[in-house]
Design goal:
Structural class: alpha+beta
Oligomer: single chain
Shape: elongated
Largest sheet: 8 strands, mixed
Length: 463
Amino acid sequence: MFTRVANFCRKVLTRESDSDTPQENHDCQDVVIIPRAQHTISRQDISDNALKVLYRLNKSGYEAYLVGGGVRDLLLNKKPKDFDITTNATPEQIRKLFRNCRLIGRRFRLAHIMFGPEIIEVATFRGGHSDNNDKDASQQANNGMLLRDNVYGSITEDANRRDFTINSLYYSASDFTLRDFTGGLQDLQQGVIRLIGDPEVRYREDPVRMLRAVRFAAKLDMKIEPATAAPIVHLAHLLNEIPPARLFEEALKLLQSGYGYATYQQLREHHLFESLFPIIHRNFTPQGDGNMEKILNQVLKNTDNRLQNGKRVNPAFLFAAMLWYPLVEHAQKLAQESGLVYYDAFALAMNDILDEQCRTLSIPKRITALVRDIWQLQLRLPRRQGKKAYKLMEHPKFRAAFDLLQLRADIEKGELQKLSYWWDEFQQADMQRQKSMLNSLDDEPSRHRRTRRPRKHTPKPQQ
């Protein structure tokens, strides 16, 4: 796919072969400009709205380029999820050009140009940081993390501020050329995820880059370059300093992009998973063959299959399945230690598990409410006598609860599998068959049903 491009890059990059000192990182080199005839990007594959933004910026005298994942995906013959643009126009200048523009962000000032449901994100060229920068534009914590990054510069400086070489390719709509400042085309062809600059410094600037490295490696089926991978293990703790709301958004990208299982394996390999899901990490077994590991593997594979087949997924179901066995273990512990009936212990355990998980991932209440519904229905599904089965099927989250029941049944077998088969048949049966199935149920009370004690009758005092 990249034969012509690769040959061209090799010819240009051979200028480095005369040097006795190998290049240790991919800081910005002299730009390699690839003409239209030697790359595969066509305007037909670019959003019309993105082209409108590029043309208007160019017409107004500004530089403007398509950049980042959109360019990368076009070169890989994939359909980009979105299109990002970078320019030498400041956010305020961009807003003057587009009435449908709004400015967002403090840490990174960005312009969002709204075209109905499509948003074209436009960023101003980033510049390098120095001690002379205005604190309102640039601010860095003592640990190296960038708190504010609104220093503007040239396209060359911007390329140096990007994270990975494969995301540092610039497409121009004015002359249809591709600009490569960091050897990104070569890395794209060789399937290499490589940070620009010193990996440890770049991770300290923004620890989320560690998660991005893992996500791109899984999504694009690439390898993380050894120098890029090496610092991750001892810097993984820096994720604890990232706001939980941001980590929640990153977790959805990691696990709900169609490559969740492969991403999960990478997160485990690089010791990043425990920073996102400490509760789950505590419950891993030495052999990795516990019920929790099994349900994790299966729910992530199922999620990938649904997404790859164009079906929708709900993060509430994913979290409900992932946290199910830690919930059960905690509920059993509470019941034993406090003497509470299991149902009450289960309710307390739900609060504890969700509260602890939300300290690392700020899961919105609209999602945790659905997680609670799915969990509570697990206790109700065995109770099918009378009209209970019909009422359960009318519950808005019945289908999600049944899916979790099936996952559990495939792992635990036994009575749970019988229950799963029963519900599967009951949903598909006609009215007559459903009545027959209900009549044949065992009349004994379910194991979680409370039995009432007979009232003590105290004799009335005689007058």
